Amino acid sequence: MRALVGVFLLSAGLVAPAAAQTPRWEVGIGALLTGRESAGTTSASVLGPGGDSLTLFRTTNRVTSGLGVESQLSLRLRERLRAEFAFGWVRADLESLISGDFEGVPDVSLTQGVQQFRGEVAVAYRLLQRGRLSAFVRGGAGGFREITTDQALVGNGASASLGGVAHVLVRQAPSGLFGRIALRLEARAVLRQGGVKFGAEGARVSPAFVAGLVISR
Questions:
Q1: CATH architecture of 19-39+65-96+114-216
Q2: pLDDT tens digits, residue range 118-128?
Q3: SS3 call for 7
């Protein structure tokens, strides 16, 4: 009799199947890939004999694509709305191209490793639930700290992001701490201000991608 009632409620849409139920909490970890971005342009100048400015050389700087790891903690606020706390670490390179030397010295490129530590608070709203697939739109804001490997340059900054997240359920168990395991795929656009940069470089936008696993109950 209970089985018949359960089948009736499920078919009537009064209860959700296990794959569609919203977890109370989620913990995830995955690989983080960041896109390259400008780090500013500067010029070295001196005053000439006539009082005019003489440019000695020019440097164009950028941070290359980086690879790291990101962890997430997600808590249910409403049936479709979740709060997320994300923490990440990325290793990239700071490239500086020195050009336009007034003595005609050929252009030279210098590379320095840089680490980035980031934290973000975000909200995610579920747009779609189809079988094992869940799709979310996600927006967040936070801060970051960049340090070159020789610790000569350190910069703090603020960031904001907007993107989409997909969860694909790979395991569903009726009980146990690791009852649900899903694959998490995310793409986001990140707006950053500050950090290790040169000159009057303002806010810049770069992509970021996350692929990993999520455990939830």
A1: Beta Barrel (2.40)
A2: 999 999 999 99
A3: helix
